[in-house]
Design brief:
single chain, 152 residues, CRO Repressor, 4-stranded antiparallel beta sheet, 6 helices
Length: 152
């Protein structure tokens, strides 16, 4: 029964801390957000299964991790250089319908990945229908279709 109570307590603490820290939507999770979630999960898991009998210790560790994440996000807002270092920068993968082989290799993205994004977001079927494809720092691929010269 202690495990159940501990699990419910940790659940409530993580839920409150996450809301207070201003977490973005899951679609915007960065590598650092993922690391934070994994560390909090490990910290909470120890308290829930009894490896760490101190719920207080787990809560303090989780609060420290979330505070560190909040402070890091504030530092990234103040320093574009730090933001680029931590979150990366967008990479142009296709320019004027032509894939950049070196950019694709460095990003470990295939032409099929680009065409999948083009189909799912714009209904495009061929690379020559893609004006630009950009690998965003979030890991998503943004597609800018070729403008139809007849539509203006």
């Amino acid at each position: 029964m202690n495990s159940v109570i501990g699990a419910l307590f940790i659940y409530a603490v993580v839920l409150v801390m996450t809301r207070l820290s201003g977490r973005r939507t899951l679609a915007q999770v960065t590598v650092f957000d993922l690391v934070l979630v994994l560390l909090i999960a490990e910290t909470g898991q120890q308290a829930m299964v009894g490896d760490d009998p101190s719920l207080t210790n787990s809560v303090v560790l989780m609060a420290t991790l979330i505070l560190t994440d909040v402070l890091l996000s504030l530092a990234k807002k103040r320093s574009p250089r730090l933001h680029r270092l931590i979150d990366g920068v967008p990479t142009v993968l296709v320019r004027n319908g032509r894939p950049d082989a070196e950019a694709l290799r460095m990003a470990r993205v295939s032409e099929e990945d680009i065409l999948e994004a083009a189909r799912s977001h714009h209904g495009l079927r061929r690379m020559d229908e893609v004006d630009f494809a950009v690998l965003e720092s979030s890991g998503t691929i943004s597609i800018i279709p070729v403008r139809n010269s007849q539509s203006g």
